[in-house]
Design brief:
InterPro entries: CheY-like_superfamily, EvgA-like, NreC/VraR/RcsB-like_REC, Sig_transdc_resp-reg_C-effctor, Sig_transdc_resp-reg_receiver, Tscrpt_reg_LuxR_C, WH-like_DNA-bd_sf. This protein has 211 residues and is an alpha/beta fold. The chain is built from ten helices and six strands.
């Protein structure tokens, strides 16, 4: 019987995950957490074979997103971590694998995919939801470990945008033309395979560029 810990800040999501995970009779949910702090406390005291966690959860002491993934990977390198997320841009997917996730399941995926992901990671494989895999293939990247690299100026522009500044304000601040800032923003989004400002801001937050 595989022991599974699940973490999500929405109780109704955890209820659904528990039902799906235990349906085949091969897995048992041995603990639940509603955020990074509770999750790390739980993992420290409750042995488990697989961890299923949300990407964005509020925490008082511990960061969510990549910070949480990296910490789990360093402290428990042998424990497979399955990320269940609504963040569906390619940059987030690739960076999540690079930070230690072994599988990524979309919250919009069918119920059968979470058990498939558990089976895959316990067999030493990785898993990506079908809808997310299609995005990665369309973006021309099958290398899940590749972390998108921005130039220093591109990172600076993304960070300022995510902090609430406009293109015009950034241009004035760094003494560059508006067209240059716009081009750097577009290039950064292209490198990250991101098409909307909302996804760009979500990437900046999850990668630690802004609080």
């Amino acid at each position: 019987m595989l022991r599974v810990i699940i973490a999500d800040d929405h109780p109704i999501v955890r209820v659904g995950q528990k039902v799906v995970i235990e349906a085949n009779g091969k897995c048992k949910v041995v603990g639940e957490a509603d955020g990074p702090d509770q999750l790390l406390e739980l993992v420290a005291h409750q042995p488990c074979d697989v961890l299923v966690t949300d990407f964005a959860m509020p925490g008082n002491q511990q960061a969510d997103g990549y910070g949480l993934l990296g910490l789990l990977h360093r402290q428990y390198p042998q424990m497979p971590v399955i990320l269940v997320t609504m963040f569906a841009n390619v940059a987030t997917l690739r960076a999540s694998f690079a930070h230690g996730a072994r599988a990524i399941v979309a919250k919009s995926a069918s119920a059968r995919e979470l058990p498939q992901a558990i089976k895959a990671v316990c067999g030493g494989q990785t898993f990506v939801s079908e809808c997310l895999r299609q995005q990665m293939e369309e973006a021309g990247t099958l290398d899940q470990q590749a972390v998108p690299q921005l130039s220093g100026k591109e990172s600076e522009v993304v960070r300022m945008l995510a902090s609430g500044m406009t293109v015009s304000q950034i241009a004035a601040r760094v003494n560059r033309s508006i067209s240059t800032i716009s081009k750097q923003k577009s290039t950064a989004m292209s490198r990250l395979c991101i098409s909307t400002d909302v996804d760009l801001f979500a990437y900046a937050r999850s990668s630690g560029m802004v609080p």
